[in-house]
Amino acid sequence: MDRKYNFAAGPAMLPEDVLREAREELLSWHGSGMSIMEVSHRGPEFETVIHESQQDLKSLLNIPDNYHVLFLQGGARLQFSMIPMNILGSKKKAGYVNTGVWSKQALEEAKRYCDVTVVADSESDHYTSIPEYNTWQFADDLAYLYYVDNETVNGVEFPDIPETNQVLVSDMSSNLLSRPVDISKFGIVYACAQKNIGPAGLTIVIIRDDLLEREPLAFAPSMLRYELHVKNQSLLNTPPTFSWYMAGLVFKYLKAHGGLAAMAAINQKKSQKLYEFIDSSQFYQNPVRPRYRSRMNVVFTLTDNNLDALFLKLAEKEGLTNLKGHRIVGGMRASIYNAMPEAGVDALIDFMQHFVKHHG
Ligand SMILES: *Cc1c(COP(=O)(O)O)cnc(C)c1O
Question: Torsions phi, psi of 223, nearest 5?
Fold first, then answer.
């Protein structure tokens, strides 16, 4: 069967083994005579999915016991509101680090609920770097400090966790599970599924238990209260069961393939190859400062952008699809999450070489 190398930023590729496994058990899940899509979210079959996926995620990420793992809906974007609604407590201010399109949108949304202090900002650099931690300007009494660990559109990733005594909140939508991360440094880590975890419809929120003591804003609806989701073990209403099940298969796949340390090594290798090729070429450019380049989303431009359409068309013919950059930044973007095999990156580099030779 012809599977393409799909470089989409999200929804993105899933491991082929996972898709096959889902197909195998689509009509009758574990001999139940029903698809996992067709069973009650409170029945014994789905209970198994819930239990195993939670255990597997906890073990993959080494999540400490004082954290809760929630499987929610509404995408990453709903967290832009849920976080201030639930975590401001009695405070009026929150800090945001503005390092790209997604942090900017999150901080704009937060302005509906609180005073936003922009602690550090790389917008004037066209989001090609991350301000040094020692230049960050904190206001007093911030309820939390929010940053986006990997800026999916701009191709900028934090090389490490910022040193701070603030309550750290991080959007890891496009790089959670791509490397080990010390969850104990965070108040909240969250990620929508469709980049590196599973199908769209599911959002994973990992929250430290002391934050549940903060009083949500009075008008916050039940569905937007973390504490109620914790109490109901993510079954306050019907969850996106199929997406949850698929994420569970991905967790098992990752565990069977060496866990996150193994993913980190291969992701480092894949991205390094691609950046080295781009840097060695006169024809392709990446604008991001090397230290902050994303291992997940590699953005690049062609010297002559009149060739963009031809590049995309010929790439498509080679089975290399969805390389067009985000409409806001233009150019190209190769998203190379866990599920993109190294052979896909090799095929892209071969194609890029070939393209320069004939059209550059
Ligand atoms: C994709 C993405 C989002 C938005 O996700 P939705 O699920 O579409 O709301 C937010 N933040 C980051 C970093 C993303 O990559």
Answer: -65, -15
Q: Which of 78, 146, 152 to mutate to test the pocket of ligand 1 (most atoms within 8 A of CB)?
A: 152
* Binding site membership of 199 for ligand 1 (Cβ less than 6 Å): no
* Ligand 1 touching residue 104 (CB < 6 A): no
pLDDT at 2: 86
Full DSSP string of 328-348: TT-SEEEE--TTS-HHHHHHH
Averaged pLDDT of the chain: 97
357, 292, 305: which is closest to 331 by C-alpha?
305
Under DSSP, the state recorded for 45 is: H
Residue 300 to residue 285: CA distance in whole angstroms: 5
Instruction: Report d(CA 340, CA 327) in Å as an integer.
Output: 22
Q: State yes or no: is 171 an active-site residue.
A: yes
Residue 183 pLDDT > 70 = yes
pLDDT over threshold 80, residue 1: no
Q: pLDDT tens digits, residue range 214-248? A: 999 999 999 999 999 999 999 999 999 999 999 99
Ligand 1 centre distance from Cα of residue 283 (Å): 31
Active site residue 102: yes
> In whole angstroms, what is the distance from residue 20 CA to residue 220 CA?
41
Residue nearest (by alpha carbon) to ligand 1 atom 3:
76
- Does 195 sit in the ligand 1 pocket, CB within 6 Å? yes
Q: Considering just the CA atoms, what is the radius of gyration of the chain in Å?
A: 21
**Closest residue by Cα to residue 84 from 120, 108, 118:** 108
CA 39/CA 80 separation, integer angstroms: 31
The secondary structure of residue 324, as a DSSP letter, is B
Q: Is 29 a catalytic residue?
A: no
Over residues 147-170, mean pLDDT: 97
